Amino acid sequence: MRWALVKVSLAVTAMVVVAFAVPLGLVIREMARDRAFAGAEREAAAVAPALSITTDRAQLERVVASAGSGTAMAVHLPAAGGEQPLDIGRRRASDEDVAAVRKLGRASTSTVPGGSALLQPVALSSGEIAVVEVFVPESAVTNGVGTAWAVLAAVGAALVVGSVAVADRLGVRMVRPAQRLVEGAHELGEGKLGARVPEEGPTELRLAAVAFNSMADQVVQLLANERELAADLSHRLRTPLTVLRLNAASLGDGPAAEQTRAAVEQLEREVDTIIRTARDAKPQTAAAGPGAGCDAAEVVRERMGFWSALAEDEGRKWRVAGADRPVRIPVARADLAAGLDALLGNVFRHTPEGTAFAVDVHNGEDAVIVLVSDAGPGIADPEAAMARGRGSGTDGSTGLGLDIVRRLAESTGGDVRIGRSVLGGTEVRIWIQLDGRDRSPRRRGHRGSVRRRRTGRGALSFNRSRSLP
């Protein structure tokens, strides 16, 4: 916008300068020409009285010498009394031009080498017509024209430069508030809630800045209210958790009791984390940067070790594949553990006892895929299950667990898909992008090391090297 204003100002000023400077330059040239010929006419008029009195050569030569400037003047006398025509001074005009002026009886100009000649007719006492020739050099015609044109050019350039400078200042005054508004919008979009815009500039931009600041304040207030609500709702869980912890303490010894007490302790820690995060207003984000993140294989082994005890109690067969070697991913350990617990909890919550399940880890060149599959009845509407707050449609399903997993994957540029597993039930595929470059939901069929195939039911699945025992 700033440069557009400068260009418009430059074009308009240049047009105005050209419109005035060119005609003015032509007028100056004509004025210089008129001045030169007016001087020549005055010199010719100074000789006319002498010609009306005498035609003596000596006297006329003295008159011409005193009236003319050097060799610039000449007098052409006609033939009289059988004598030849007499020319006094240097002749430059042609005989035809002189004869034409003598015949017509009025002054005229003719072009001669080096300039122009003014031919002025003068009546003699004898009734004949003499012609006074005054030479006007080209330098006299253009005297001062170059200087005047240079001054005009300088003035025009100064006007153009001045208009551009003024337009630039005006452009800055208009563009800078707009740029600050754009920067503030970007900062607010990036999560910098303290971004505000100075309320200055033109009236429209000032009103836009006022509206933006009001919107930002309202966003901050709404987020603060949501954080307080989340903290209050989480705090309400403390009472039933306390009762649950006391009941777990009275279970005595044994693997099941220890597992129950460990689950209660973990649940208390998660509730405390939610309350602190909501109070501190520090949203959890995926880890990033060299060396950040966690070992996905280690987290999978740890969480499967936790859920395996409950699987044995319910008679479920389970399997882990691809977690025997380190697999680094740009995701925080706690976030990945929470996502796996959400998916495995869904398996235990929404499938009958004895239903088998598996967790596979596929390590590719630019992505890591974690598959959680089961042999349950499956999900009738995968798209609806991915919608936050809807779930699979069964009792106790809210869809928040899948939403946690989706946000975890999308924070790296990946995504989450739900399909039919080779076990016959649901398969949740978590695609974790390693380089974080692909931020758009596109088809990923070109990924090199992770191969996909279609099952007999037409659902999306992946090759596996192991099967359930």
UniProtKB/TrEMBL annotation:
Domain HAMP: 172-224
Regions that span the bilayer: 148-167
InterPro entries: 2C_sensor_his_kinase, HAMP_dom, HATPase_C_sf, HATPase_dom, His_kinase_dom, HisK_dim/P_dom, HisK_dim/P_sf, Sig_transdc_His_kin-like_C
Group of enzyme by EC: transferase
Location relative to the cell: Cell membrane
GO CC field: plasma membrane
EC number: 2.7.13.3
Ranges where the record places region Disordered: 438-469
Cofactor: Mg(2+); Mn(2+)
Source species, domain of life: Bacteria
Any Pfam family the entry gives: HATPase_c
UniProt feature, compositional bias: Basic residues: 440-456
UniProt topology in membrane: Multi-pass membrane protein
Ranges for domain Histidine kinase: 232-436
Keyword terms of this UniProt record: ATP-binding, Cell membrane, Hydrolase, Kinase, Magnesium, Manganese, Membrane, Nucleotide-binding, Phosphoprotein, Protein phosphatase, Stress response, Transferase, Transmembrane, Transmembrane helix, Two-component regulatory system, Virulence
GO molecular function terms attached to this record: ATP binding; phosphoprotein phosphatase activity; phosphorelay sensor kinase activity
PROSITE patterns reported in the protein's UniProt record: HAMP, HIS_KIN
Catalytic activity: ATP + protein L-histidine = ADP + protein N-phospho-L-histidine
Protein name stated in the entry: Signal transduction histidine-protein kinase/phosphatase MprB
Organism in which the protein naturally occurs: Actinospica acidiphila
